[in-house]
Structure formats: structure tokens, C-alpha cells
Amino acid sequence: MASTLHRKLAAMKTEFKTMYDRFFDYEIGLELPNVLDDRINEINVSYFQYYVYFISYIYICIYTHILI
Known about the structure:
By secondary structure, the protein is mainly α. It has one domain (2-67). Helices cover 85% and strands 0% of the residues. The relative contact order is 0.15. The model has no long low-confidence stretch (mean pLDDT 78).
């Protein structure tokens, strides 16, 4: 059970890293307004996903420490 939990936590950490990198790699230049709005919405969705995964990661860490 512990090794499965460690694998899941490692997978979540890797996913956090890729989402973080993708979030901060966005470049917004001079584009058409509708393209710019689409990019901003994409960034907002990525940020929200990052936030949700981060909260779930914290919850799993706390729960794991309670179990230990």
C-alpha cells in the first residue's frame, strides 16, 4: 500500500511540475482579441487545475502523515 501511495505522490509531483512549467511558459504577444481571450482562458484553466491538484496533494500528504 505504501509503495502504491508513493508512486501516486510521485506521479502527482511530476504532473505539478509539468503544469507549473506550462503555466509559466506562456507568452502573450500582440494577437487578435479572440485569440488573446482564448489564451487567457487556457491559462486560467491551467491555473485552476494546478490549484485543485495542489490542494489534493496537500490533503494526501496530511492524510499519509496521520496514518504513519
